[in-house]
Amino acid sequence: MLLAYLVAKKRILVLVCLWLACLSVCLRLFRSQRVLLSMSQLPGVPVKPNPVQDELIDAVLTFPLLTDPHWNSHGYRHLTYQQREARMDEYIESLANTLAHPRIGSVHCLYDQEALVGYVRRTISSNKLKFHYHNETHLALSLFRFAFQSLHGHLVMVLQADTYPAHGFQYVVGATMRKKNLFYALTRHGKMEATCDMHGDFCDDREYVGSHDAYIFVPTGELSARHGDVLNKKTMSWGVDLVIAWVFDDMGYRVLNPCKVIFLYHLHCTWVRDVGRVRVNTFNTTGWFPPTTSLS
112 with 137: CB under 8 angstroms? Predict the structure, then answer.
């Protein structure tokens, strides 16, 4: 009897210990979930949506065929053919990176040089890449007018051709963009590229100089003639990004620069630039939106 009693008591003690261990694990899990929940409610810590269930983005961009002998711009006359070719390589690499991004559904490339299409297709073959002939592709107005006329209601990203999307795009939620009428004017980042070190981060409170390189929004309504006139600037002009941000703020969009969360990389190892650029923003058409972690 005594032996049976001791065995039964030992079993009870084992069960109690197992129960207490399970309770301890459950309490730790509960506390960790409370910590994660409280973190997600802190300013600057976005709640991660499911990127698989969210819609894809239509990217819109343009770039000239610098090696075309029939094309010449005063600001590029000083370049050798090798310099032009190297700059084209950067455009092609950036385009390939954009096409490969999982959140990009289509890339709409506007062009006004017939030879550009063949040049790109000799290197890149993708069903996601669409070409659209358009006059005056060098104007910011052309890109945004295309978005309003051809991609009305879509989730759109207009971007410079030497930049490409990276991480953080799971935080771009189409439903939220529509509900809150958001416009993300993103500042680029830099990293080590194959041919140079592009480190130098404008998405920094101390380094921000008003630079924006990609614009994510849902085009709704119409682009008015007044705003169209303001956007009628060359995409390579100094300050055109500030003008774009100002226009959409004036249109009633909530403009933010969440580049601390959504990353865009810049590829410009050649440092080839249009030397004829002029500044186009004025005191009344300057949208100043410093880096933030806020998404809405």
Answer: yes
